[in-house]
Amino acid sequence: MHLTTVAAIALICLTTSPVLAADPTTLTGEVTKVRDGDTIEVGPVPIRLNGVSAPEMEEPLGPPSKAFMVDLVHGKRVRCELNGEKTHDRFVGICHLGGRDIGAAVIKSGLALDCPKFSGGRYKAVEVEAARSAIKLPRYCRVKPWSSRLKFQPDRISSLQ
Predict the structure, then answer these.
(1) Which fold has domain 17-139?
(2) Could you tell me the pTM of the whole model?
(3) Are 52 and 32 in contact (CB under 8 A)?
C-alpha cells in the first residue's frame, strides 16, 4: 500500500511539473542556469539553442554573451521546441521568452552568429556586421558550398551521356 501511494505521488509530480508539457517535443519551464550564450537549462534539462553560435567562455565575447543571456532569461519561464536531436548532454531546440526567439535576440545583440548548417540561415538577417568580424564561426557551422550539388540526380547523369 505504501509503495502504491509513493508511485501515485511520483506520477502526479511528473505529470504536473512545470518543466513538462503536453507535447513531448515542447519543454516549458523556468531557466535555472545559463551555461553560455547558446546553452541554457530549463529546470534540470540542458538546451542547446538550435542554429546559434555564441563564443566560448574563454573567447573575448564569451562572457558578455553569457551575461546577455543571463539578463534575458535567467529565472524566467521559456518555451522550447525541441527537434529530437542531442549534442553532448544537451537537447537541441528553439526557445522563446514570451513570443521572442532568444536565439535571434542574442544574435541581434551582436554577441553570437547564425550557424547556417543547423539553422538553414534562419538568423542570417539579424546578424550584426561587427559580430561577423569579431566572432569566429566554428567549422561545424559552415555549409560546404558544393554540398547541395552532391545529391544524387539520375536525370543529370543521363543528360551527360
Answers:
(1) OB fold (Dihydrolipoamide Acetyltransferase, E2P) (2.40.50)
(2) 0.75
(3) no
